[in-house]
């Protein structure tokens, strides 16, 4: 898969995500000891921890799909401090693909919901980049698990968001897919993007990370 620059960052404004003394809970009990993170453009943070330690719960809270029981987060943007949701995109275990829509329709839907205009050739190029060239008119529900993951990840290429929030993004990808995704995230970081992701036992992504957050029992 080739890597074109489909995600240019035209704004060079500095933005910072601050997570301070943050904890999340399930069943009334905190899942992990308080965590702190200062993540800015050009950086990657990796969250690790045993199964059930709260990685997904934490990422959902950061994505605005859950909440913190203690502490919290702030988005420091020079112009629009309330714009976190405009500057971030989350790809979680539930991939957000619409099974009855084709791959192209899925991407067009995502672009439309985002308020961006994308031409079909841009959407096709994104599908091509993630290895779904030739699957433009296939229904998402008919894709394999790895292809569904690739379709979800292709949204990152068209939505032009600075902060990528990725829950186990390498899961279900084959070797070539993992290589592509590693290069894609590296490219994003090197071009002024930022990423917060969870990853089990992924040596090169841990080595690439600027911040490692290991969730410990409280
Ligand atoms: N509705 C719920 N009520 C009570 N506990 C819950 C609920 N939902 C999830 N949990 C628990 O919260 C904990 C954290 O789950 P979470 O999915 O965040 O962990 P994780 O670190 O992402 O795990 P994994 O590595 O297996 O993906 C788990 O122990 C889970 O059983």
UniProtKB/TrEMBL annotation:
SUPFAM superfamilies: P-loop containing nucleoside triphosphate hydrolases
Transmembrane segments: none
Family annotation (PROSITE patterns): ABC_TRANSPORTER_1, ABC_TRANSPORTER_2
InterPro entries: ABC_transporter-like_ATP-bd, ABC_transporter-like_CS, ABC_transptr_haem_export_CcmA, P-loop_NTPase
Keywords from the UniProt entry: ATP-binding, Cytochrome c-type biogenesis, Membrane, Nucleotide-binding, Translocase, Transport
Gene3D superfamilies reported in the protein's UniProt record: P-loop containing nucleotide triphosphate hydrolases
Name of this chain's protein: Cytochrome c biogenesis ATP-binding export protein CcmA
């Amino acid at each position: 898969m080739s890597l074109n620059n489909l995600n240019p960052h035209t704004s060079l404004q500095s933005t910072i995500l601050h997570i301070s003394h943050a904890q999340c809970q399930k069943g009334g009990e905190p899942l992990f000891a308080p965590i702190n993170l200062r993540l800015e453009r050009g950086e990657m943070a990796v969250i690790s921890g045993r199964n059930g330690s709260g990685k997904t719960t934490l990422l959902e809270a950061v994505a605005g799909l859950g909440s913190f029981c203690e502490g919290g987060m702030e988005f420091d943007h020079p112009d629009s401090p309330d714009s976190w949701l405009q500057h971030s995109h989350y790809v979680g275990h539930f991939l957000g693909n619409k099974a009855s829509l084709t791959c192209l329709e899925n991407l067009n839907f995502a672009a439309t919901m985002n308020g961006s205009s994308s031409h079909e050739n841009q959407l096709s190029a994104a599908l091509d980049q993630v290895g779904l060239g030739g699957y433009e008119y296939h229904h998402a529900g008919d894709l394999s698990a790895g292809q569904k993951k690739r379709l979800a990840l292709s949204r990152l290429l068209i939505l032009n968001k600075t902060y990528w929030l990725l829950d186990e993004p390498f899961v279900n990808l084959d070797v070539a897919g993992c290589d592509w995704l590693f290069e894609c995230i590296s490219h994003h970081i090197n071009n002024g993007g930022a990423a917060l992701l969870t990853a089990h036992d992924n040596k090169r992504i841990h080595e690439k990370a600027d911040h490692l957050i290991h969730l410990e029992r409280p």
